Amino acid sequence: MEFLEGVKKKEIFAIRELEERKPFGEKVSLQGAVHSIRNMGEVEFVILRNREGLFQAVIEKEKGKWELKEGDFVTVRGLLREEARAPRGMELQVERVERISTPSEPMPFAVDKWNLELSLEAKLNMRPIALRNIKERAKFRIQEGIVRAFRDFLYGQGFTEIHTPKIGAKGAEGGANIFKLDYFHKPAVLAQSPQFYKQMMVGVFDRVFETGPVFRAEKHNTKRHLNEYTSLDFEMGYIDRFEDIMAMETGFLKHMTAFLEKEYENELKLLKVTLPKVDAIPMVPFEEAKRLVSEKYQRPMRNPYDLEPEEEHLIGRYFKEEYDSDFVFVTHYPSKKRPFYAMDDPADPKRTLSFDLLFKGLEVTTGGQRIHSYPELREKIKNRGMSEEGLEQYLDTFKHGMPPHGGLGIGLERLTMQLLDEENIRETTLFPRDLSRLTP
Amino acid sequence: MEFLEGVKKKEIFAIRELEERKPFGEKVSLQGAVHSIRNMGEVEFVILRNREGLFQAVIEKEKGKWELKEGDFVTVRGLLREEARAPRGMELQVERVERISTPSEPMPFAVDKWNLELSLEAKLNMRPIALRNIKERAKFRIQEGIVRAFRDFLYGQGFTEIHTPKIGAKGAEGGANIFKLDYFHKPAVLAQSPQFYKQMMVGVFDRVFETGPVFRAEKHNTKRHLNEYTSLDFEMGYIDRFEDIMAMETGFLKHMTAFLEKEYENELKLLKVTLPKVDAIPMVPFEEAKRLVSEKYQRPMRNPYDLEPEEEHLIGRYFKEEYDSDFVFVTHYPSKKRPFYAMDDPADPKRTLSFDLLFKGLEVTTGGQRIHSYPELREKIKNRGMSEEGLEQYLDTFKHGMPPHGGLGIGLERLTMQLLDEENIRETTLFPRDLSRLTP
Description:
5-stranded mixed β-barrel; EC 6.1.1.23 (chains A, B); aspartate-tRNA(Asn) ligase activity (chains A, B); cytoplasm (chains A, B); homodimer
């Protein structure tokens, strides 16, 4: 009988190992894709690409001729030598090449260009190839770092990770923006958010979070909307005030920037990202924010109940100019624009104990305190003229007791977009879904 | 202007702090739900429940009367004293109680019973309340640990985490087992797996993983099937042989057991879980596995192309009896039962370089090496009488070169179920979706 005992160390070097150990003069093997080839007559510079980045290999004609082409996947073996002119201060003098796979057709465009010269449409149509460009893929490494930081921080704060269903019965919260499907001849919908589930789980785990897809059938076609996105959600019980939720998010952002700086240094450098300051994030009530930007930028207020995109942009500008902050919490949104479960401000029931976080003038988070009292929750549902149908199990949870709680949802692709100063959310979405895009 | 600067330490103690510091004789505050109350006349024992577990508080009648009831959420303050008879060797002598929330109705059943005496149906119908039982919720803490271990291990092995879309255009792989929906008047489907995406991303990141929901419109109604579940998927490039994938999974299982032992000790104890041995996992070819159990247990082979549930069970039993292993990799499944992208065995094209991992006689993983050559992939599609329609972008990725690769998908709820020796997968699914269940 044969047995498996775990991962065996391959005789292949990681680039990081070479950079750390610098075994100049030794024979080493590397694996990668042929990213680009520069033929200089007597020598050929072959740039290899693997998950760690690029590495320069040199083939001297006299050593052998391997007829490599871009897109080949190879194992190369040779002498590692110090070379000040090479990007990492070293290069591999190739002595043996094993081609482990070869493409059927050349690249449809130059993936080895430093900046990929393609329209967004073209990039998205050929996403799996376009991402072989070093800078394009770095965006998604940083996105990975954001999610890791979110989970790491929350584990450390006593949160439990949950996995809630994405298919459900039609609930009362719904509206026109829900994708519908047939579930074994029963009507069903795709989850717009894990809202009800995470609240119900506060009664079990006190603090919970989820990182997963959410679905919005909104007919927006803008640079900042998607119809499917990754939501970073948390919900926490035993809060003393709704500011506790914003404090937790601030804590996450601090952890995130420190974590990215430490673990994703290469990608940050590659994309020339300047991490935002997050040591103190200002918070401003909704109405005051509207007034401040209306005064400073001589812009008349139109909609008293909501922030127009231009207003959000100006609020971002205001707090950058006045407080040098890329972030601002806008608090106390009008009750009529928030869902029924939002807790109204005892000092003014027309507004809620809720907030949005704006990052460089764009909303990246919506959150707030929720009603935890069963009678109050039913009262609010009644006052809104809503039905309790479809909410039975949600309401039952409150009937048997719930601590004061609140939470938030962060749009991962938006947060990434703002962090990287991208103009379109599709740049930071691996495979975007929008009104016109269902593939690849 | 007010600013948020991160999480402030509350003046509330964590149970762990009390157990570590043992500040006997000091005044401390704790928060929790009233899990149970035992009235002894002069004193009342109030068991508090919070995310960390249970803690005993004692109210002496002379100190005050607070009329607590089960399901209240409270902050209690008092003197911490050593008490050998209390579960943690200490208890809180209550001096002040602040009730922060109170239920409208008593619990519908005794959540404080050590073993919840409810049918599975009843538990699922009242999931958010049933999970307030200490043992019920511990299952999902362990499930969290499995997912954490999966990610931690793979980050350490150079994998990149990806987030792929769950809504897509109808692909060629499909069949009857796909949920369909209307996507802005275009036909769309829910992802059965991230298979094509993770393969395409191997060309970008070399090694990728995803932990997310998958959807199967299968009309099974068994103890081990769900229509939505969490899949732990990875895909790795530059493999030398398909055993590399199994070695990676073995590495994960080793990491998982060590991680659970270290970080989820309390929950393992609570549920009396014996972690499986994973130092060496046997592997056996499909046909040999069939022959072995047929001989040992005198069971005629019926279906030569697939394993019946009873056969899986017997294979599990065989390897437990003969090798004392809870796990066994069954390899080389017949080509006709595997998808088109599975790589056939060069030694016998009727079988594939694929495997299932059985854990205590149940399949918890399916994986294998994939075809990476563009001409071979097209050939296989053609030989199967399939169309390339809907596969254009998947195939284009191979056209431009892909390294040898393979991967697997682990059913999270199944793995949890087997680890905890549960009889029904719904026991280890937070909110199961099956043929008849769409709520809560």
